[in-house]
């Protein structure tokens, strides 16, 4: 069962069926914009409510553009997870460190955001489609979905 709420899945269904999942387009559909930029030391991602950006939701996502592309994608997906699942409890700002942990949220909440990110970037129906198309190794699947091999291995249930 996906951790992405069914109403959200309905709004991004086409994006969840196409590898690699277009995270920027997912954000746009949900009224968010993702900006890659320098962040404070040891900060990987920020979800912040700031009307000055003019997004439909009032929130934007900032990711550390110095990190690898696949990591930036996972961080952005994690922050989308906080927006979708936790925006009623985060106030105006959540700031995740390089472990994707934030000062104000429990590890259970962070695990939910990570699960959401995995469900967004590596939807099981899409993974199964790729496998039936003949893309079967962890590294090839990771490349097709633009995720790290570590994330892909975890998704497939391989020990790390
Ligand atoms: Zn987080």
UniProtKB/TrEMBL annotation:
InterPro entries: IrrE_HExxH, Rad_response_metalloprotease
Source species, domain of life: Bacteria
Domain IrrE N-terminal-like: 52-156
Membrane-spanning ranges: none
The name this protein goes by in its record: IrrE N-terminal-like domain-containing protein
């Amino acid at each position: 069962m996906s951790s992405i709420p069914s109403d959200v899945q309905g709004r991004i269904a086409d994006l969840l069926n196409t590898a690699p999942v277009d995270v920027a387009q997912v954000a746009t559909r949900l009224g968010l914009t993702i900006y890659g930029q320098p962040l404070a030391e040891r900060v990987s991602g920020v979800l912040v409510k700031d009307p000055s950006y003019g997004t439909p939701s009032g929130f934007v996502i900032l990711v550390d553009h110095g990190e690898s592309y696949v990591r930036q994608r996972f961080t952005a997906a994690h922050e989308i997870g906080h927006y979708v699942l936790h925006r009623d409890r985060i106030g105006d700002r959540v700031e995740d460190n390089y472990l994707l942990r934030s000062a104000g949220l429990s590890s259970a909440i962070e695990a939910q955001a990570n699960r959401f990110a995995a469900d967004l970037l590596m939807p099981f129906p899409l993974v199964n489609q790729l496998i039936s198309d003949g893309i079967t190794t962890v590294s090839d699947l990771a490349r097709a979905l633009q995720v790290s091999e570590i994330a892909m291995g975890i998704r497939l249930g391989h020990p790390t």
